[in-house]
Design goal:
single chain, 2 domains, globular
């Protein structure tokens, strides 16, 4: 009788663990609604909204043009990966969103991006609207005053990958292994 009770308890524990695991797994694979509606300006002076992030799989990097290392490195790497994708690069939209819209006007963004790529679109706009978008996309960015009266920006250094619906798909970390980054972009094209 005790053996029967122990087996029943064990079966209930296994069943409960299975149900819990299934619920956690299912919840971990649901698309996460990402961002919110926005209306900003691209580097050509045209209005851009969240709809641009729903046309194709998308790579979005938040940074600023006065960034000394992370931003130019990331943009250079992103352009190189897009080049390596060949014709498949046309299946991904790439954006550089300024976290310093006070200095990064559309004209500044255009000149800056011309140094890296014709494939990456710059996004800027009114500072309050840009900061709202940054918050909605759960991107860390803050102004840091410097001793000389100037300032810099502290910000997240990863590239966000969004699927065709504009939902979070993954990230490419700063200085990620190039082969890993390329595979993430290929997967985004296939599955995103």
């Amino acid at each position: 009788m005790i053996r029967y009770v122990v087996l029943c308890i064990a079966a209930i524990v296994v069943l409960a663990a299975g149900i819990l695991t299934f619920q956690l797994y299912r919840g971990g694979n649901e698309a996460v609604a990402f961002g919110a509606p926005f209306e900003l300006v691209d580097h050509n002076g045209n209005t851009i909204t969240e709809a641009a992030f729903r046309e194709e799989p998308t790579a979005v990097f938040f940074g600023f043009t006065h960034c000394p290392e992370v931003c130019p490195t990331t943009l250079f790497e992103l352009d190189g990966w897009l080049e390596q994708l060949g014709d498949d690069a046309d299946k991904i939209n790439a954006y550089f969103v300024s976290v310093d819209p006070e200095r990064d006007t559309p004209e500044v963004m255009k000149t800056y991006l011309e140094n890296f790529s014709g494939r990456i679109t710059g996004i800027s706009g009114e500072p309050a609207k840009v900061m709202e978008m940054t918050k909605d996309f759960r991107v860390f960015a803050r102004k840091v005053d410097l001793e000389n009266g100037d300032y810099t920006m502290d910000h997240m250094a990863s590239i966000l990958l969004l699927d065709r619906e504009g939902d979070f798909f993954g990230t490419i970390a700063y200085q990620e292994n190039p082969e890993t980054a390329l595979e993430k972009l290929r997967r985004l094209i296939r599955e995103g």
